[in-house]
Structure formats: structure tokens, C-alpha cells
Amino acid sequence: MADIDAVAAELYGLRPEEFTAARDARAAAARKAGRRAEAKRIAALRKPTLAVWAANWLARADADQAERLLELGEGLREAHRTLLGEELRGLSHQQHVVIAAMAGEARRLAREAGQDLSAAVQREVEQILRSVLADPEAAGAWVRGVLAKAPPPAVGFADVAPEPGAAPRPPMATVAGERGTEPETETETERGPERESKPKADAREAERTRRQAELAEEALARAETERAQARTGLEALDEETGLLEMRLERAREERERLAAAVEAADGRHREAVRAAEAARAAARKAGGR
Known about the structure:
By secondary structure, this protein is mainly alpha-helical.
């Protein structure tokens, strides 16, 4: 298996258009050497899409950055398990910002490697990175730069169940705590029904407020991500427009050159026609004598 891992590491470091020929050559070499099982596993290696290749290339280019993203994923999973609202909101916001920045870096690295990523492919890279955060198995392949295909789109951390008995951390200190007083220790029987219902109502209101704040933070993070994506898309279109304008200007210059060449050729053709007609006339006149 170590040989297969080494081959996979080599192949997934190639550009997508180089992958198939290199994979088939390695599989053929393994078959020729009598290693049929190895050849079969090599032949089964899947060619990555451009977005998957770019995500792998990003992980290979900066292993420390890749590890930090995985640490962020571990923090998010832990926050979901323990329902730490404040920490979860902070990490969710950090997730959106970091992934948008990393996808932009992937696009830059790809361009340096001779591969231009469209805005749509860059969004695919972002989706891959989000999925990697929620999928430890995909994360293991990605951090080694051997991710073969995009993981299924992540929908939060739905597979991470809260720990038994876990409850949301209160978003702020209780009124009694703020005043520095000791909490009352009377029993529910001593409180009576009216005094018993108020703490429950307060707890429900605190949970509702906490959830609203969490949703607002998530909406803000999504808005920031969408804004970053829109700006990235606009920059890409501006860059593409600039290239097209340069090509158009060169095409216009070439057209002017060719138009001048056609005009000159037409002039020479007219002169040649006149010369030919004069020669034919002279020949007829000489023959009539």
C-alpha cells in the first residue's frame, strides 16, 4: 500500500491534463513487473477535477495553512458537541473568512502553475474546503494533497451529536452574578409556582436571544462570504475583460495591416491585368501582320 500511496502522491501533484497519461503509464509499468493488484489499484485512481486539483495544490503549497484549517474544523466540531454558543459563532465567522481567503490563494497558485480558475471553479474550491472541515476522512486526503474527488457538500456539522447532558453556555452572567450576590438555595417547594416559572421563562428568553444572535452571526458570515465571492468574480471578469480588450486591439491592428496588404495587392493585380491586356493586344497586332 505504501507504493500506491507514493504513486497517488505523485499523480495528484500533476496538472489535470497530465494525470491520465501518467496514471496509465504507471499502471502499465506495474503490470509489466507482474504486480497486477497494484496495477489495478493505480488504474482505478480517479482523475481530479480542476477544482479538486486546485484544492490539493493549495494543501501542498502550504502544509501549515492546511493544518490550521483542519484545526479550525476540529474546533467547530467540539463547539457543536458541547453547544458553546459564543465560541461556535466566532469559529463559524472565522470559517467563512478563512475559506474565502484560501480559495483566493488557490486561484493565485493555480495561475502560477499555468491553470486559470474561473470564478465558478473558485466557488467549487470554497465548497470543497467547507466539506473538508466537516469530513475527517476527506480532510486526511486533502491535507496530503491526494483528494480524488470533491466530498459531498457539507451542511454544517449535522453528524456531530451534542454530548449527553450538554447545555448551551449562558451568553452573559446572571443578574445575581453581576451584583456579586450568592444564588438562592431554596427548594422548588419553598419557591411556589409563581417564583418557579420566572427562571424557566428567563431561560427560554435567554435561549431565544442566544439563537437569534447566532443566526445573525451566521447571516453576517454568509453575507461577507457572498461579498468576497462577488468581488472575486468581479475582479476575474475585469481581468478577463482586460485580456479580451487587448486581444481585440491586436486583432484591429492586424486587420488594418491585412487591409493595407489587400489594397496593395489589388493595385498590383490591376497593374498586372493592364499589362497582360496590353501584351495580348500587341501579340494580336503582330500576328495580324
